[in-house]
Amino acid sequence: MQDDMILDRTRLIENTDIVRDWLSRFEASLCAGDREQLLDLFAADSHWRDLLAFTWNITPHVGAQEIVQGLLEAQMSAHTSMFALDTNRTPPRRVTRTGVDVIEAIFGFESRVGRGHGIVRILADQPDRAWVLMTSLDELKGYEEPINGRRPSGQAYSRAFGGENWTEKRQRERAFEDREPAVLIVGAGQAGLSLAARLRLQGVDTLVVERLERVGDVWRNRYHSLALHNRVPLNHLPYMPFPPSWPLYLPKDMLGNWLETYAWAMECNVWTDTEFKGASYEEAAGHWSARVQRRGHPERLLHPRHIVFANGIVGKPKPARAPGLEDFAGQILHTHDYRDGSAWKGKSALVLGVGTSGHDIAQDLHAHGANVSLIQRGSITVASVEAAGINHSLYYNEGLPLEDCDLIATASTYPLLVRGYQLAVEKMLEMDKALIAGLRARGMKLDIGEDNTGHQMKLRRRFGGYYLNCGCSELIINGQVGLIQYEDIERFVNSGLKMKDGRIYKADLLVTATGYQNQNEVVRELLGENIADKIGPVWGLAKDGELSNMFRPTPQQGLWFMGGGLAHARIYSQYVALLIKANEVGLIA
């Protein structure tokens, strides 16, 4: 035991010395503009991902030559310095990342306008060369968040606002009767509220509009059996972690109620029952003219300088199209409108589509006593939630503080993500060998992604095409939930499905799990053809491997997008908030 402690201490000292030496040489070379010395500090196959600190954007670089060129160009305006190991964060340690043995460390630094942290991964067998570098802006100098030691006193509220108490102050702030919001956020889900909370602490006046009756209804109104498919440690919101007693996989109503609590506690200004009806950008004035309609109030014309779409990454439900569907006499529901299967006990149901929602709804219908079959239109990726945790919680199962996990998780460029997912899929397939074999035996068409990257890259590329098994796969394998291949169908008929071999599948209900229109179509409808064409796709892969138009400046001044899961909201709301604040105070145009 004593020998192990001495060995661990020796390794920590060695790792610390290696990282400190690298950071010292890196800063000296960068500040001197010495290209050759910088090149000597990076492996040929190296990666740098900058999150605002150098480039005011989410900017990946691949290869030593590209990295050094990018660093030298950005340093001329960023003026970064004071690179040093942060002794208050996870200490340097030897780990294996994407199959490569590295010394991984967290460092701090400053730029001309802000302070940040970063990750460096130095090759264990070449301790003078970095393989991965990530630089992240944390805060702007002079605009630090009033939290922890800088928190306001309770008395400050009444002194600052002419004797108002907190409740009166909040009522006045939410009303926006005497001012215009600087930022209008569309959608009060996890993305909109995370950003609103961060902007408030940046001193940026923000209004969130939500079309549903209550904050959190975006989750409450989903089908009753819905729960998150990844574990709670991944899903905390900024500033307010979930209670430690909460379940690993959160039920949707718990999450909906938490969002409502979060909006109250973080003092987010939210108008519920409010429709965002459209906007146009006034170039000369530098603001939007945005129309919102609050139930029971006249339409309001607002003039925010920024509009953020935080209404997810999809729009209206896509209607199903299939031969003879108009002849079907049973009830047709899109997954968006499905709540639970209690009304269908003893009846027959079909679910068109085998994505996550399709599986979940089939499982719910079966649990309520319905005779249900899934209709598969295309190949799908299936993994157990346990196996999927290899990807989802890869860095969050190492016992590190959440803020350190978030830094580590954001360090990978697109090529590293692909490589990492491919390695994870190999392990997942081994874990799920029996599950996959059982599904294939029932005739389900399965794949592991176009380049063996599994469900995670499908999520990034098209936000669908996979299912993380929460029990429905076993029902299919055991024959308790039927499986029909779409190409075997001739057409829908009055009583259900007519197959090409003449069989009839009778059905009282058809649930269409046919997805939603993409966000670009939402933009086209609400902001017009010109802006939709100008910005292009939202979500999916941009040319640099990052998510298209998400969490970063778009081609349209004052237009931003937030979306994805809770981890996306927590991590990337920081960068969108900093970008908007920097724009507001004139640090960037």
Automatic annotation (TrEMBL):
Entry superkingdom: Bacteria
Flavoprotein keyword on record: yes
Pfam short name (any one): FMO-like
GO terms of molecular function: flavin adenine dinucleotide binding; N,N-dimethylaniline monooxygenase activity; NADP binding
Coiled-coil regions listed: none
Keywords: FAD, Flavoprotein, Monooxygenase, Oxidoreductase
Annotated TM spans: none
SUPFAM superfamilies for this protein: FAD/NAD(P)-binding domain, NAD(P)-binding Rossmann-fold domains, NTF2-like
InterPro entries: Auxin_biosynth/cation_transpt (IPR050982), FAD/NAD-bd_sf (IPR036188), Flavin_mOase-like (IPR020946), NAD(P)-bd_dom_sf (IPR036291), NTF2-like_dom_sf (IPR032710)
Protein name, per record: Monooxygenase
